[in-house]
Amino acid sequence: MSDARAEDDGDRLSLELRFFATFRAAVGQKVLEREFEAGTTVGDVLAALESEFPELAGDILDDAGDIKPQLSVLKNGREVVHIDGADTPMGDGDTLSVFPPVAGG
Question: Which of 56, 48, 62, 28 is nearest to 90 (CA)?
Fold first, then answer.
């Protein structure tokens, strides 16, 4: 029984996904709760979001699967470009915040 419980608890990550400005409009809300498999990276989460929300497709990841340079993507408040970029691993309970490019001057 402990094996089944470990499988249930250890194979899924519960993540909080936060969106701002135009990305919030595309998703339709500020915060989403989603579950992903253990071992999921930031890039995996962002690719899943682009698939789930067609209005985001092509706006977050480039053709190589890297985060577009003009975006800010934060894991638990820290810019992922300073961690491992799209390869940054996600953990259970993590928060991923996605900010579109900011215009102005």
Answer: 48
Give domain status of residue 30, yes or no. Answer: yes
Is residue 34 within 8 A of residue 61, CB to CB? The reply is no
Structural domain for 49, as ranges: 2-92
This prediction has a pTM of: 0.86
Report the alpha-carbon distance of residue 93 to residue 90 in Å, rounded: 9
Helix or strand run (H / E) with residue 72: strand 72-75
Query: What whole-number distance in Å separates Cα of residue 14 and Cα of residue 64?
Result: 26
Q: What is the CATH number of the domain that holds 43?
A: 3.10.20.30
- For 11, what's the count of Cα atoms within 13 Å in the CB-facing half-sphere? 6
pLDDT digits (tens, 9 = 90+) for 44-100: 999 999 999 999 999 999 999 999 989 999 999 999 999 999 999 999 999 999 999
Q: Is residue 98 part of a domain?
A: no
Separation of alpha carbons 105 and 97, rounded Å: 23
